[in-house]
Amino acid sequence: MNKLVLNSESLNNVLENKTISRQDVIGIYQQAKNDPEELFSTAQNLREKFKKNTVTFSKKAFFNVVNLCKDTCSYCTYKAEPGEEKLSLMSKQQISELLQLAKKYKCVEALFVTGEQPEKKYDEAKVWLKENGFNSTVEYLIHASELALETGLFPHTNAGNLNFEEMKELKKTNVSMGIMLENISERLTEKGMPHYLAASKRPKTRLEILENSGKLKIPMTTGILVGIGETMEEIIDSILAIKQLHQKYGNIQEVILQNFQPKQDTIMKNTPSTDEKYFKTVVALSRIIMPEMNIQIPPNLSPKSYQSFLSVGINDWGGISPLTPDFVNPEFSWPEINKVDEDSKKAGFELKCRFPIYPEFFSFISKELRDKIAVMEDVEGLVKEEYWK
Ligand code: SF4
Predict the structure, then answer these.
(1) Architecture of 47-387 per CATH?
(2) Where are the domains of the chain?
(3) Residue 199, pLDDT score
(4) Residue 59: in which H helix or E strand, if any?
């Protein structure tokens, strides 16, 4: 690796593994606004140092278990109302069938997603649970996760704000779990801001859930939504908050950086998509704040340029499904895995399939789950090609 010679003292410190302060990061950002090249090349250098030339993804099926949600975020198009065509209330039969299909397609991950506590607000959700024999959405998720394991898939649940006990139960079957921090700024919860009608997105609440995941030693995926009206300082504070959690508990396995895309039927429909240069700056800053972290952008949300993010610090594409849509961003279909493979190669990287848990976190899960992974893993702890290709 060539030694970088930089004008920025703070960036040189980063390369020398020295800790930098919030003020240093803000200074780096101020500089990068005019000329991001030093920041980008530092991020690339760190990425190469810690992640080599591999870029990973998780081959998944997206289970839109229930998309009724008690909250309303200004950008969300996932949430459905009763009677809407997009309403999803998956029956046990539908879950079993999709699991079988996912196995046939050689998916590795079963991603279970729900809206926020649907049964707290909607009778339809209560009826649906009763019909399927459950008292709560979490009970249903536990059952679905058990079924996934029986079928040979690894569950990863993202069901919003779960409490300590619920997460503890789900840890038995889920190799990892996810909840986006989104942003640590209280300002974004004020009137007229995107999280005003979303009590579940209060930064304190989200941080508490991430704290609980740390106490429970759950390999956790979290991340930031970029471009929803935040300032760069608020982004930096959010990344620093994630870093702090990871320093305390060591359980943050990856950080998703998701660029906002406006959706037609939402309050934020006229807000422009996240500017690409701004987004790349966020990616690069994340890499310099957390040099060893797994950093992901979803390729479907930057369809024309996703591979260019490899040179500003990312090392993962997240879940890509060969058979189900991205129900959170349905107008952005996932690229074909072959295409991602090709584009990654062209950029000088090798695409590899990972489990929904990164190898560094294998020691966090039960022996039973670990044994199931062992059957399918290669020498690097990634999925053997015969199981996904
Ligand atoms: S983003 Fe999540 S919490 Fe917000 S409205 Fe959509 S489903 Fe509900």
Answers:
(1) Alpha-Beta Barrel (3.20)
(2) 47-387
(3) 86
(4) strand 54-66
